[in-house]
Amino acid sequence: MTVLIDPPNWPGPRGLMWSHLVSDSSLEELHAFAARLGVPARAFDRDHYDVPETVHARAVSMGAEAVSSRELLRRLIAAGLRRRKRHSPR
Fold first, then answer.
1. C-alpha to C-alpha distances, 15 to 18, 26, 27, 41, 52, nearest whole angstrom
2. Which residues does the UniProt record annotate as the domain DUF4031 (predicted)?
3. How far apart, in whole angstroms, are the C-alpha atoms of residue 90 and residue 73?
4. Cα–Cα distances in angstroms (integers) from residue 81 to residues 37, 40, 55, 72, in the given order
5. Distance CA 89, CA 70 (A)
6. Looking at the chain, which terminus has fewer C-beta neighbours within 10 angstroms, N or C?
7. What is the DSSP string of 4-63?
8. Angstrom distance (rounded) from CA 31 to CA 41
9. Using one digit for the tens of pLDDT, what is the confidence trace for 4-52?
């Protein structure tokens, strides 16, 4: 059971760079970790939390494993937890 975080490489609100926080075992584990980290529930998006660069070091110090974005996605898919966006018909 591991919570993973990728580098803050994604531009986002407030001029910050953002990371993705995921679990490679369960959404329950992910939600519990995010709550301990103080990440609001509104930051959850289908299968991950978007977290600002200001949270990255604290997440790692609390036990999240820092991995590349590619590795994060690979492990999320391997765990069967990837939830892709559904495209609505036009």
1. 10, 31, 28, 21, 10
2. 3-78
3. 28
4. 21, 20, 23, 11
5. 29
6. C
7. EE--S-EE-GGG-EEEEEEESS-HHHHHHHHHHHT--GGGEETTEEEEEHHHHHHHHHTT
8. 8
9. 999 999 999 899 999 999 999 999 999 999 999 999 999 999 999 999 9
38: Cα within 13 Å, side-chain hemisphere = 7
Is there a contact between 75 and 4 (Cβ–Cβ < 8 Å)?
Answer: yes
Place of tokens 């604290």: 58
Take residue 70 and report the two structure tokens written for it.
Answer: 């590619």
Position 74 scores a pLDDT of: 95
Alpha-carbon gap, residue 8 to 27, rounded angstroms = 21
pTM for the full predicted model? 0.88
Structure tokens at 44: 């959850």
**What is the pLDDT at residue 80?**
84
- Closest to 56 measured CA to CA, from 81, 20, 30, 89: 20
